[in-house]
Amino acid sequence: MRKVFTLSMLLTLMLLFCGGPQESPKAETEKPETKDESNLYYGTLGESELQSLIKAIPVFNAEVEKLDMELESAEGPQELAAMLGQYSTLNKRLPELDAKLRNAGMSWEEFWPALGKTYMAVGAVMMDSLTIAMKKEMQGVQEDMLKEMMKNMEEANEVYKQVPQGNRDLVRKYIKELSAVMD
User: Fold this and answer.
1) pLDDT in tens for each of the 183 residues of the chain?
2) How distant, in Å, are the alpha carbons of 59, 97, 132, 136, 146 from that of 140?
3) Which pTM value belongs to this model?
4) Phi, psi of 68 (to 5 degrees)
5) 78 — phi, psi (to 5°)?
6) Which in 60, 129, 157, 180 has the greatest CB count within 10 A?
């Protein structure tokens, strides 16, 4: 029970802050044609796109391991957005990344949006499952504590509200394959 509560609170905090406001803008250093990544994560994910991504993720992971710097992880509040933002520019730090991804079946321009949509869909699926599990586990918990937890869960669900249901269904279909290749 305590593990479920701790996990739910950690995920709730992570989910609440990953969709929060961006930091104040810094000097423009990127190309002006850079896409708005906040909407990128909520696009429709196609099955062939996900299948190609599953094949390309091991190549991506192998190339990322070559970096000397430590990359963010998604283990706590605000880390998901930081991690995705950091990953979005890896093609600039790894010049051979695009060519290697192309050999695996996806260019960087195809890989990056698919990865962002997949991470958001995986988060939405996890949140769906956690919400169902929490409702079952919370039977018998003090009513005011239950209300507070459910309020937090509903706020966290707002982050994933825009993830298309088709993306969630597709991720559920390929969850074993995704679990095998995603860190």
Assistant:
1) 444 444 444 444 344 444 444 444 444 333 334 455 557 778 999 999 999 999 999 999 888 888 765 555 555 434 666 677 777 788 888 889 999 999 999 999 999 899 989 988 998 888 888 877 877 776 766 677 777 877 877 877 777 888 899 999 999 999 999 999 986
2) 47, 52, 15, 10, 9
3) 0.66
4) -80, -25
5) 70, -10
6) 60
- The residue range of the domain holding 177 is 43-67+75-181
- 150 lies in some domain: yes
**Residues for the chain: how many in total?**
183
Can you tell me the distance from the alpha carbon of 2 to that of 4, in angstroms, rounded to the nearest whole number? 5
In the chain, the number of structural domains is 1
> And the tokens for 9?
């609170």
Q: Does 27 reside within a domain?
A: no
